[in-house]
Amino acid sequence: MLAVVAAVGALLAQVHNHASLPDPVVELARDSMTLPLTTVGGRPIVQVRVNGSGPYPFILDTGAEGTLITMALANELKLPISGEVKVASPGAAEPASAEMVQIAKIELGDVKMTGVTGVALDLSSMPKIFSGADAPMGVLSIRGWKGFLVTVDYPANRITVKRGQLATADNVTIYQFSATDRLPTVSVDFAGTAVRANVDTGAGRGIVLPRSLQSKLPLEAAPVPTESLHTVSGEQAASRAQLKGAMKLGGYSIQGPQLDFVDEFPMGNLGYPILKNFAVTVDWQSHRVELKQSAPPA
Asked: Do you know which CDD domains this protein is assigned to (predicted)?
């Protein structure tokens, strides 16, 4: 599964006929590794080597269920194709065609992934983020990185990978998600209504919710149309409104945030405008995620 939209992660792309992509083997040459955080449209960008070639810019995406590579790069590297698949976002009328590819090795600094099964698809129709000379060539998923803590620290402008596990969930900064959850999720309070939401570093929009919640939440005014979500399988209409009340996540609270509502959206999604306030750490071994407000470097 992948998160691939204009917000690269605001909607989950579902790979039909494949329950899940197999986890790669992940190795770290030392106990920890720190990289500078650079972003494009709020998405963290890392430089990876694919089968020894590169480096290529990839989005480091906590909201991606599998690693994605552009069809152009897959063709350039002559990656072996293991099958054809269909990808679609929730609510999409028609899925898009893609290919399952086998990647022997992906390297990110001192991190090495082997035996990677990825999905290659044409992203040329995707606006903004996947256009231009410095456009990302793929999306790197951290799903299945068991035994490692992966941190995207926005205030400190750094990405850290280290061995270890998060402490027991306290629902203040550390949250437990289910082993059956496909992505890191947290419970968010919207003016008294609890909503499960994905923690998605690949999303450019702050808060996206199912349209079914539109009539259940207190809003300052009726939602108005906003820019559509551009997905791999077409556009999906979105509307925007301001919450009449506070959004609360553990000890974090924001009054009157903007909410985007989308048809058939399965659950909430938190992206860059919210996550930029935190150091986001994912622990796939324990199925925990930490959102810790950290101070920017002096």
From this structure: retropepsin_like_bacteria (cd05483)
